[in-house]
Amino acid sequence: MKIISRNxxxxxxxxxxxxxxxxxEKYQPEILCLQETKSRRSQLPFELKHINNYQSxxxxxxxxxxxxxxxxxxxxxxxxxxxxxxxxFDEEWRTIMADYGEFILFNVYFPNxxxxxxxxxxxxxxxxxxLDLMKELLSQWKNIIICGDVNTAHTALDLARPKExxxxxxxxxxxRAWIDKLLQAWFIDTFRVFNxxxxxxxxxxxxxxxxxxxxxxRIDYFFISTGLKNKLKDAFIxxxxxGSDHCPIGIEI
Length: 253
Fold this sequence. Notes:
Blueprint: E1 2-7, H1 11-16, H2 20-27, E2 31-35, H3 46-49, E3 55-59, E4 69-73, E5 79-81, H4 87-90, E6 95-99, E7 104-109, H5 117-139, E8 144-149, H6 173-184, E9 187-189, H7 190-194, E10 203-204, H8 210-213, E11 216-217, E12 220-225, E13 234-237, E14 249-252
Parallel strand pairs: 1-2, 7-8
Antiparallel strand pairs: 1-14, 2-4, 3-4, 5-6, 6-7, 8-12, 9-12, 10-11, 13-14
Helix pairs in contact: 5-6
């Protein structure tokens, strides 16, 4: 089973530029998770609501043009929950959960790195609430897959200029420590199972043409609980795919 995740930075624009549907047709993931769709289902054209062989589900924020996440899936989940489960965090609708029986998939657009004290506080609170939920599910012996835009680079291997960004949000010690805590809670960074090289990134600033110079960040992840470790066959970054400031990432299980 191939699962792909991508921050599309506005789904309708990506589709209008002929990047989205040809990508889906070519790679045919079993499950495709999107972040920053920035569109209500009612705003999407017919061809995006009804892709052949896929069912689609979207978490839709009340704030117009805000984050939002969505899932296209060939396999019908047992249950879909397009919310976090906490009033404080559901106002931005950053999470969609799909229960497939053998595993629970969380597609998440974690709060980003605006350098405002209140936003940074919100990011940490979201992180901790999400980790608490993961620990609760692990205590019930659930197999879990987490994917999405985490908006933090974990180690110096995960961004081109670690020294210059040590005091910038997205690479703060407290943010990086949260990923440490997630891994200590019996999760695995799937890409690092197969690749320990430093130059593999998933996000580049478009305004500075950073991708051409590969001045990037790896802030998009697939984490799996350790119960799925033996089923993990591959993890990859699709750097060559255009259409957003993020490229797709994926796993095969």
